[in-house]
Amino acid sequence: MPSTSSSTSRQKESSLMAVDGKKLLNPDPAVAKDASLDRTVILVITNLLQSSLDPEQVLKLFKQELLPLVRIDSLHFKYPPLNLDINLEKPERHSTNYHLYMENHDLGQILLTRAQRFSRAELERLERLLCALFYPLRNALTHQHALKAAIHDELTGAQNRAAFELGLPREISLAQRHGQPFALMVIDLDHFKQVNDSLGHAAGDLILRQVAECIRECIRGSDLFYRYGGEEFILLLSNTNQAGAQLLAERIREAVSRMEVALAETQCKATISIGLAALMLGESAQTLFERADAALYQAKRAGRNRVELACA
Q: Residue 189 domain-assigned?
């Protein structure tokens, strides 16, 4: 059963309600009458919200529809599974907070604020009107989860090859349009087949996850990180010239070489080889990647656990 839990600035706990408005878990006849009057409004709002599968747009529409019914100044929504943290306007002094659940699924937390204190009647109406949000929000979150699954590697959390093939031309176009430097890094674990053969695939998976996390700890939030396939990763570095990219590559290589992976009966070390290419004037995505990939193979031939720069 969809439900909400809430608290105001006084930390008051509100009642739970059914999403369809047919059963309000509050015996007050006046509240039941008001709930009946809101049913049509809830259906209208629900239909409007179902026009989008973007959670932020759904919440914007919901806030817009709330304003004539219960005045609010801001809306803040958090949904950690997708790292969603949506703020619509600046928070005010008085607030009411709802944790949304539907059929035992957590749909996130929504905080509504305004300058004036909410009356009890307004809070009760807000709880009823939140019914309009459940199904559209659930659909939007489900859609976002599907999109994430389509472009992310489940094992490492990095974006996948499909996302890379979409992202590289876009990032190059942005760099060329704004006249900014751009670099691409291809990273490969050394001797990874031997690890799988000797320690097993579970150990190999653990090493991949920890190497991916180590790389993430070294990069900026604006850097794009992909698992290209197998033991190979790619970094796209916006607004980064060759010298800056080389410094980062060495930092990543050293961090991975210092890492120890704790397995059931042993400690395992890992090293990586890196090929690096800086975008040249008018260069295509394919050529940039090919140069970085060739540099990676040069690093392998030169002994591994090293960084090689691509030839022009």
A: yes
Q: Report the relative pairing of strands 260-262 and 94-102 from DSSP bridges.
A: unpaired
Q: Verify that 23 and 127 share a domain, yes or no.
A: yes
312 residues of the chain, pLDDT tens digit each: 455 544 433 323 333 333 333 232 333 444 444 556 578 889 999 999 999 999 999 999 999 999 999 999 999 999 999 989 999 999 999 999 999 998 888 999 999 999 999 999 999 999 999 999 999 999 999 999 998 888 899 899 999 999 999 999 999 999 999 999 999 999 999 999 888 888 888 889 999 999 999 999 999 999 999 999 999 999 999 999 999 999 999 999 999 999 988 877 778 889 999 999 999 999 999 999 999 999 999 999 999 999 999 987
254 has catalytic annotation: no
CATH number for the domain spanning 244: value is 3.30.70.270
Residue 280, domain extent: 161-309
Judge whether 285 lies within some domain: yes
Q: Select from 123, 151, 179 the last residue of a domain.
A: 151
Catalytic site residue from 124, 127, 231, 308? 231
State whether 116 and 202 are in the same domain.
Answer: no
Among candidate residues 131, 151, 171, the one where a domain is terminated: 151
